[in-house]
Design goal:
The complex is a heterodimer of chains A (112) and B (114). Chain A has 112 residues and is mainly β. Chain A contains no helices and 11 strands. In chain A, strands 2, 4, 5, 9, 10 and 11 form a 6-stranded mixed beta sheet that branches. Chain B has 114 residues and is an all-beta fold. Chain B has strands at residues 5-7, 10-13, 19-24, 31-37, 44-50, 53-57, 65-68, 75-79, 88-95, 104-105, 109-113. In chain B, the strands form 2 sheets. In chain B, strands 2, 4, 5, 6, 9, 10 and 11 form a 7-stranded mixed beta sheet that branches. In chain B, strands 1-3-8-7 form a 4-stranded antiparallel beta sheet, with no helix packed on it. In chain B, a hairpin with an 8-residue loop joins β9 (88-95) and β10 (104-105). The radius of gyration of chain B is 13 Å and the shape is globular. Classes of the chains: A mainly beta (112), B mainly beta (114). The A-B interface holds A 4, 32, 34, 36, 41-46, 49, 89, 91, 93, 97-105 and B 4, 6, 40-45, 48, 55-56, 58, 91, 93, 95, 97, 100-108.
């Protein structure tokens, strides 16, 4: 049973525009969330996190929004750059941080 | 320290053979995780250690899989009697529990069982 879902397998965005990647989860016990970026033949690279005590967290061009009532989070990248082209995974965990559940990923292509 | 390292990066083996992978975490990190990733999927949790203690194992981890972390430093993941279904990317990650929950991944070991 997939507890973390990324329903868009791919997304294409023009350079300079906003990229919005979405993630839904089913387990109400999840209260810590991570976003990772992955290039081919490399391990995932940590991007940004958010805990359930917040509804927004920013780090440079990256902002994550959390809507607990909808069990939904999103990653905004503004402005998008060609180097952002990669697969993006969201991951969720209960507060123990023991085990993270990952979504299936969204492949982002930023078109120059 | 430049991050999490894994060795080998690629392994091709014949069905029925045993394989062992190594992970060296970021030196000050006390938690170490193993994940498996197949094509089109996100990483799936296998097991994790806090220092040298193996605290949790996934139901995915059959008895052909064993992991160790002697002395709480590097870790090894062994797969005995490999099967074609074991072909995957095996990822190691580490974190500093008590500071934050962010996990930092290594480059992975790509296993192909023929």
């Amino acid at each position: 049973d997939q507890q973390v879902k990324q329903n868009s397998p791919s997304l294409s965005v023009q350079e300079g525009r906003i990229s919005i990647l979405n993630c839904d989860y089913t387990n109400s016990m999840f209260d810590y969330f991570l976003w990772y970026k992955k290039y081919p033949a490399e391990g995932p690279t940590f991007l940004i996190s958010i805990s359930s005590i917040k509804d927004k967290n920013e780090d440079g061009r990256f902002t994550v929004f959390l809507n607990k009532s909808a069990k939904h989070l999103s990653l905004h990248i503004v402005p998008s750059q060609p180097g952002d082209s990669a697969v993006y995974f969201c991951a969720a965990s209960a507060r123990t941080g023991n085990q993270f559940y990952f979504g299936t990923g969204t492949s982002l292509t930023v078109i120059p | 320290d430049t991050g999490v390292s894994q060795d080998p990066r690629h392994k091709i083996t014949k069905r029925g053979q045993n394989v062992t992978f190594r992970c060296d975490p970021i030196s000050e990190h006390n938690r170490l995780y193993w994940y498996r990733q197949t094509l089109g999927q996100g990483p799936e949790f296998l097991t994790y250690f806090q220092n040298e203690a193996q605290l949790e194992k996934s139901r995915l981890l059959s008895d052909r899989f064993s992991a160790e972390r002697p002395k709480g430093s590097f870790s090894t993941l062994e797969i005995q009697r490999t099967e074609q279904g074991d072909s995957a990317m095996y990822l190691c990650a580490s974190s500093l529990f008590g500071d934050s929950y962010e996990q930092y991944f290594g480059p992975g070991t790509r296993l192909t069982v023929t």
